[in-house]
Structures are given as C-alpha cells and as structure tokens.
Amino acid sequence: MSLLIKAANNLRHPFAPGVKCMSVTFQGFHLKHAAQINSCQHQQYKRQFSGKTAKPPKSNTTMYTLFTVGCITMGYFVFDNMEKLKRQEKSIKNTEVIKTPKVEDKVTSGDDYKQWHSTQRQDLPTFKLDEIQKHNSLENGVWVTYGIGVYDITDFIPKHPGSDKIMLGAGSAIDPFWAIYQQHNTQEILTMLEKYRIGNISPEDEVATDDMGSPWAHEPKRHPLLRPTSERPFNAEPPITILADNFYTPNEFFYVRNHLPVPVIDEKTYELEVEIETKKAAAKSTQKVLTLADIKALPKHTVTAAVMCGGNRRSEMTSVKSVKGLSWGAGAVGNAKWSGARLRDVLLAMGVQANEDLHVILEGADLDPTSSPYGASIPLSKALDERGDVILAYEMNDKPLNRDHGFPIRVVVPGTVGARNVKWLTRIAVAEHESNSHWQQNDYKGFSPSTDWDTVDFTKSPAIQAMPVTSAICTPSAGDKVKVTKDGFVEVRGYAWSGGGRRIVRVDITADKGKSWHVATLEQENEPDGRHYGWSLWTARIPVDAKHKGEEVEIWSKAVDSAYNVQPESFENIWNLRGVLSNAYHRVKILLN
Amino acid sequence: MSLLIKAANNLRHPFAPGVKCMSVTFQGFHLKHAAQINSCQHQQYKRQFSGKTAKPPKSNTTMYTLFTVGCITMGYFVFDNMEKLKRQEKSIKNTEVIKTPKVEDKVTSGDDYKQWHSTQRQDLPTFKLDEIQKHNSLENGVWVTYGIGVYDITDFIPKHPGSDKIMLGAGSAIDPFWAIYQQHNTQEILTMLEKYRIGNISPEDEVATDDMGSPWAHEPKRHPLLRPTSERPFNAEPPITILADNFYTPNEFFYVRNHLPVPVIDEKTYELEVEIETKKAAAKSTQKVLTLADIKALPKHTVTAAVMCGGNRRSEMTSVKSVKGLSWGAGAVGNAKWSGARLRDVLLAMGVQANEDLHVILEGADLDPTSSPYGASIPLSKALDERGDVILAYEMNDKPLNRDHGFPIRVVVPGTVGARNVKWLTRIAVAEHESNSHWQQNDYKGFSPSTDWDTVDFTKSPAIQAMPVTSAICTPSAGDKVKVTKDGFVEVRGYAWSGGGRRIVRVDITADKGKSWHVATLEQENEPDGRHYGWSLWTARIPVDAKHKGEEVEIWSKAVDSAYNVQPESFENIWNLRGVLSNAYHRVKILLN
Hints:
2 copies of one chain form a homodimer. The first copy, chain A, has about 600 residues and is of the alpha+beta class. Chain A contains 13 helices and 29 strands. The first copy, chain A, has 3 domains: about 115-200, Cytochrome b5-like heme/steroid binding domain (Flavocytochrome B2, Chain A, domain 1, Roll); about 225-440, Oxidoreductase, molybdopterin-binding domain (Sulfite Oxidase, Chain A, domain 2); about 470-590, Sandwich (Immunoglobulin-like), CATH 2.60.40.650. The longest helix of chain A has 17 residues, at about 30-50. Chain A is globular, with a radius of gyration of 25 Å. Chains A and B meet through strand 24 and strand 25 of A and strand 24 and strand 25 of B. Chains A, B: One of its GO terms (molecular function) is molybdenum ion binding. Chains A, B: It is found in: Mitochondrion intermembrane space. Chains A, B: It comes from Stomoxys calcitrans (Stable fly).
C-alpha cells in the first residue's frame, strides 16, 4: 500500500465524508457510471503514487498528467447544484416532468439554465448507459452525460481548449469533474452544452443522490469581512482599506485562495509522508513519515512572509482585456509571522544533498474528484537554502493555522507565489521533475501579451516562483472624496512587496502623472536583503494644489526593490491570458474635497 | 607596519612610478604644499588601515570617510594638463607671461580656459604659500591654489555639493585631487573657478614639474574598436553591433570601466591581504596574506557571468534630462567565462561564519591621489553563498586577466553591478560596515526621479548590488536602412540580462508600439535560476507590412526575468540624478528598405 494511501487514510475524503478516502473514491457520488471510469482512473493514480519506484515509468507520468489535466480542464461546474438536483430527481421520480424550452428560447429565461442538465427533455430520446458508453471515441462519436442529460460533443472536441484531454470523459459522466470548479458554472458554458444535448439518461440509470453528501459540507466558517471572488472553492479577499492598518494581517482577514474543498484533518492521526524519489539526492534514507508531534519536535523557526496570490490585482489587468481567472482586487495578499519546522532540517536529516537539477514536490490533502491532490513544487535549492527560510508551518501569527490556511501544516515558501505555499500538506517528494499538477504545469505562468489561448504553449514558460515587485494604494479608495489637509496635503497609504526576499527600498507616489514623485515612508522589518520576505507598508503625504479642490486626481504608486527592479507603468504591455503577475503601477482616482 | 603597506609595497605607485608607494605618497608630485597636507592625511589613512584593530575607532572611520569623500568631491580635473603645465611652467620661468583676458571675456575664447590656472594673471597680486595656508577656515577665508592660480572660494563653500568636505583642501592645493577626474575638466567649472581667482602663487613657491611623471604613463594599450567615453580614467565600450555576435565577449572588446589609473603590478610579488576585522565573524584566523600561487592552488571554479556597469545605457536616460556621469551607450556590458578561486573557500578556510550583519570589503591597487584605493563591498552572505559563485578571478575566457580587467586578480561577483567586481584586488576585509569608499557610499545608488542634487541624501538609498532586468537591441542600429526579407520580416538581435542570477525567461519585441509583441529566440546557458549569471543573446524576426517600405519604424525590446520582473517602459519615471539603472525598454528607430 502506498505511503500516500497510508497518509490519506487519516483524512476524510471530501466527497465521501466519514469514509476512508482511498478505498472509496467515487462511491461517495453513487453515480454508477462515474464510479466505473473513476475507479479505473484511481487505480492508475494509485500506481503512479505507489512510492515503490524511485522513477515512475514515463508513460504512467504522462498518463497521469493527461488525466489530471483532462479532469481539471473538463472540471467546470455543478456540485452545489446537488441540492437542487436532489429536489429535481424527486420531481422526476414523481413524473412531474418540467417542460424544457428549446435552447434558443432559454438564454433569456433567468436562472433556468442551471437546471437544464437535471431536467428531462421530452423532445429528445432516452438512452441506456451501455449505449452511451459505446460513444467513447471520435470514430463512434463522443457522448457524455451531465445530470440526466446526454450530450454528443463530437463536434466540440477540436474546439476544446484542452484539446484531446476531454476524451478522458468520453462515454461517461462529467459530473464529478465539473463538481469542483463552480466559478465556471456560467450561462455561456451551460447554454453551449445544452446545444449539444441529444437525449436523457434512461430512468433506471439515473443517479441516486440521497446519500451523496457534498464536498463542501465541511467548509469552515469565514469572517464576514472577507469578500468572496468565488464561493466554491472558497476564494476571498479583505477590503484593501483595512490591509494597511496591520503590519501583520489578522488571520481572520487574511485572503483565502483554495483550489478545492477544504479537507477535514484530524491532527491526532495526521501524517506527512516524505519521500526521496531519486538517487541523485544521495539521501541516506528515502522514506519517512512524520506526525504533527514529530514536526513540532524539530527546531522551531519563525519567518515573517507576505503570501500573495499569483492573480492578485487581476481585475486591473482585466480592464485592459479580459483574462481567465478569479477577479481579484489588490487584497489577495497578506503578511504574517509563520512558525514551524524548517523543510531544510527535514531533508538534511534524511541526508539529502544539494543538486541543482532536483525539485521538491508538495502535495495537499485537498483532493479533486479523481483523488488527485493539489500539488506544486519548488526547486530543491530553495528548500535547502538556509536563507530560503522554507518552513512546514503550524502557526500563523502565533496561533495554530486555521483550516482555511492549511491546518495542521502548510508549507510557507517565503518570497514565492502563494500557489507553491501548499496547504494541508500530506506529502513531500524530492524528484527529478517538477510537480505534474495542473497548477504547476498549466497555470501560474506568464506569457507575452500577444499569446492567446490558440497559441499558448504552457511548456514554454517557467512556473512562477519568486514574484515581481508590486505595490498598491490601500487608502484612499477609488472614488473617495478625500479631505485636503489645511497645509495642502493628501495622505496615501498602502503596501509594497517583492518576491525572492528582495527588500522594498523605495515607494514613489505621484498625483500629477509622474511630473513629481514623492518618496513614501516605509514600515518594514529590518531583515537583510535576499531574506526580506515580509511586506512593507508605506505612507506618503502628497502636496496638492488647493485650487484643484472638487476636482479628480489620479494617484499612482510605484515600488522599487533591492535589485532596483521597478513596477512597469501600465497593464497593456504585461497583459497575459491568465491574468497573473499583474504588477503595473496602482492607480486610484479620487476627488479632492 | 600594516599589511596593506606590505601588499602595496609590491606595487608601483601610479603617481610616483618606480618608487615604493607608501613611503612616498605625494613626493611624486613635488608639489611642496600638496605634500604637506597629503603626508598628514596619508598618516591618517595608514592608521585607519593599520590592521591592528578589529574595530577601527569611529572617529577615524568618520574622518577617513570625510576625507576620502572630500578628496573625491573636490577631485575634478587636471593631471593630463601636466604636460601643458610643464610647458607653461617653462614659459613662466622664461618670464614670457601670457596676458590673460578678464573672465567675462574668456568664456567664448575656445580652449583657452584649460590654461587659465597655469597662466599668470598680471592684473592680480602674488601670494606666498605661508600666506595662502593661513586662509584655511571660514573665519579667515578659504583660499586654495590650482596650478599657479590662487582662489578665494569662501563664498563658494555653501554652494559646494559636497558641503563642508571641500574644507579639507582649504589653504592648500587642489591639484592632486583634481588630477584624476578628467571628465570634469569642463569649461563651466574652470570658468567658475577663475571667477574666484584672487592672485598668483609667488614664483619661488611654484611647482617644479620636471620629475613629476604621470599616473597615466602606464596605461595599457587598448583595442581601437573600444570607443572611449573618457580617456583618463579610461572608460570605453565596444560598438554594440558586435556585442550580439559572441556569446562570450572577446576580452579585447570587453567594455572597460576604470575609476583611477591602471596600477602596475608584478605578479611575482603580488600579495592579497585578507583580514577579518570583526569578532562577529567568529573566524579562527583573522589575517592571511595570499600570493598569486596561493590563490591558484585553491580549487579552480569557473562561472559565466555578465558584468555590467551601473551606468550602462545612461545616454538614453540623459535624453530625458541630463544626469551626472559618463555617457555610456548600451555597450557597458560584456559576458565572459571567469575562472579563479572561490572567495567562499578563502573565508571558510579562515573559519568565517555566516552572519547577516557583515560585509566583505574589497579594495584594489588603483589608488587615488590620497593613496586611498578603489573600494567596494558586498554582503558576507553573497560571498559565502555556494550559489553566489563569487570568485577571485585570474582568468577571463580562459586567458589570464589583462591589465584593464584587473590583472592579476579581480573579484567577480556574479549578478552584481560592475562596480563591486573590484579589479587589481589587494585587500579583502570582513567588517561590520560596508566599504566607506565614495563609490559604495556616494555613487552607484538609485533615487526617485524628483530627487535632485539639492535634495539628495546618499545615506537614504542602498548601494546597488544585484542589477535589474534589462535588454538592448544590438542590430539594427538607430537610423539603419534595414532590408525587409522577401517574406516580410526584419531580423533583430540583442542581449538581455538580469542581476541576482535571475535567468531571462522571455524577450518580447514589438515594431508597432506594443500592439503586437513577438517572442525572441534565446541563446543562453542552461544554468539554474538564481545562479544564471550569464547574459542571454536573442534573435527575433518581426513581421512588417511591405507597404511601409521607406518608412520609419521604431523597434522596442523588453526582457522578463525568472521573477517575472520586466523592464519599465520609459525613462521619465526611472530617471535618477546619477543616471544609473537605466533599464527602460530599448527603442531603436530604423528605416525599412
């Protein structure tokens, strides 16, 4: 039995609460046809991560990558419609069939589109599962089911952004894949899907949903101040007006970026697997399992580090041209004091030697419908660097991590994009390759402004690690009427940060489009350059001409880091299709009062 | 006797060729009054660097700083006028006195201003040295001599950019200080000086120049391709059209940035002093002297590193608003394979322990008129970092260093501004403070665009270490008529680089002001990020509309490094009074042919 399974057995599977996760996979869904495909894929996943082989066979790796990516690419919508589905299933059972309008008529009919896939179409025939399953290739046509709908998506295959990866769902249900990514549950996509509808699932093959449960049933309670950009998975930021009030962002206001449901972990049985997958690391021991007590017994190290989402300030980039991703404001960042064991200590204790070719793969307990965990990786050099300050954190601002921030253990990789700071850490592997996860391979990368979804090749850009220099104006907010002081000043406050431990050395503010720049006063820790992982708060008093009272003024902020890198001026020339690395000048228009 | 003196005894003093330097100081000048002040200051310098005290008394340090900075601040002009001076001295002796026009008339009279200070003014009285020396305070008035001129600069003192530091020259000659910095030998400054003229030095106090020698007499021969931005000290860059032709810049074309005359060093007697000045380093031994053979006996380490002047591309910044500094094009950079001993190995052998508070001071054999060496420092953390790759280089592209590049030893600090890559290395010191040199403290720092010479406070900005991301178009050149290929393309080539070991991950080129960007093909080493110190050459084929033939097109280049830092768009918002860090988009206008 793989170590992953051992570790994971201590967790409750988000899709089957109360049941050991690896042994059940998609039984939790009781989607019979879904279970068929998934148990097969899950075997594949288990083989991939069985931990017996230092180098997993390449074909497995490729298959796994294809599969994971495929699932995620396909995985857009549903699961929160399960309650509605339940109700509607009952309706169907009671033969109170809702008359479904034709697709062409539907677009304008309010929220109805959310129920189409769970509604019988009397104008279309009924298919049995074994018939549907035959349509699993381009030769035989590609059919999928969603809810009780049957869809022939053969014509859509070449148009799918993930190209042939969609084929992994051919002949079966896409429900489990679409269960997670509710931000894509859009009228546009559901309307498109309904256009491909060819029928209904035969009543005897319909899903029994009574004991289905919800992967979202165990989400933690959140502070009402957090403003969600998506509810499921939960992603939320605080209003940025409060960000600059605290050098250490209070845990309850700290932005949350979850990619999957929050796992339920019992700290008493929690285990962290560490595996050295390659001989190149020259380690003395290649496997280790650490309990929470083991981790806490290691020397405790504290580091102040801002953690920032790769998509922070995406909404500003979107204003140039739309991008794919959550519409973050400038609040997808927080600064905290993190305490835990050094990853370096864990690896050195196993005898791991420095090697520029190696990576440390980090996996969380948050699982997607295929039971694949959230995953990311960092270079081994960062993990081993004493000045890298990578820790297995169990405390955030002197309190135990809360569930949204990775209880009981998250990796904190200071200076590195949030996505690599893996939460609910269950597995660490030293390997010759980066994480194969979607988030490492096909997300969180930058591209040229002229690269679009037709031309993008994710293998051509490196996964974001250290983040570029940025800053934001926290107060005043856009549109605020701002009182000019008697001596003719406006006070402006904000944050600035740069990745890679680069200290902020200056923040310049202008209220006259760069004719005059005013150097802000910084509040920051006195950490050395290269190891300055916390953010800097700043305050500037900008002189404004009293005669402009009542007029609009645009304030810009521009930060400079210790390598004298500076924010670019505008978003036009850094635009990228994923809307990451959105670090141009922050510009806020206010009214002088 | 200090170790420095021991080391320096093996060098020929640039101002007294053939004479052991420490024992003579300014005898080489035979400027009697200059020798008086300088021998005193030199004692102070010797005390400062006597190496007996781990912590030099603060007052000494301050005095030394004041003195060095003062000398340099004052040190603007002359020495290459010595030949002329010689001729004129003879004229004076022969009483062929040149009639000097009044200052007001002189401004328009060609190059005459260069001879004013070596010309008797018959309209003014004559002063004896002991009279001049009394005027050494604000109370008694501040007089200085330059050539045979006597000047009352009392009124100028408050206007002097270096404020009271000018007082170090009060009552004596400024010739030795102005001997080095010939780029400041401007009509503006000499005219200003002449306005303060009050007389002539008494004939019996005039300088005997016959055996004065020239600190520039031993400059090496340079390749005619190098285009000087200043002759003395020699600063020159190759035409950038040839830069992109070689991944390793040929040594003879490699830009030269000298701050002082090139020292003459005998490799047989060369010695490098290493001193651990602070107990915080916890070193086992605190002093060591290494011969060239000792250094070569250490494990040889090779690193490819681009070295770039902090002022590279300054001329582009100047086009926005003038700055102080040599007018570099984009050729003040080169890429080479450097080989030598690791600085880390030297320090570890002495038992030096990592400490975030400490610095490594690096000093060259190139001396200013006060016998102060060129100096710089880097953080100890960089020196000790295995991935920092700091070496004591004796080879450049597999050949021994040539004299312009630091023969026999220069420090190569990969990823760090050229100014810290100290040439002709004679002393290394681990200390609690940065180098006190002018170049570390009052130069090579960045400031806000609104900071000017009235408001600048050099203590407020950190010394440049790692450099920001940059790129330049090497071909075509501005104004070139460029042939459009049959299939409608223009080929563009250039270099890109970022400091701190950050790999270049993308270079974007546009020929339509950013409407479309084209990703260039990179030629670079496969070194890991954080340790990618070499530059990247790039080539892009840009489609151009055939109907624009005969028209002007502006090409822009923009590089992105592994932290996804990107060049700023324009110079307006990164302008700084020293014209350093000039890394905005490179823009070249060409004519389509």
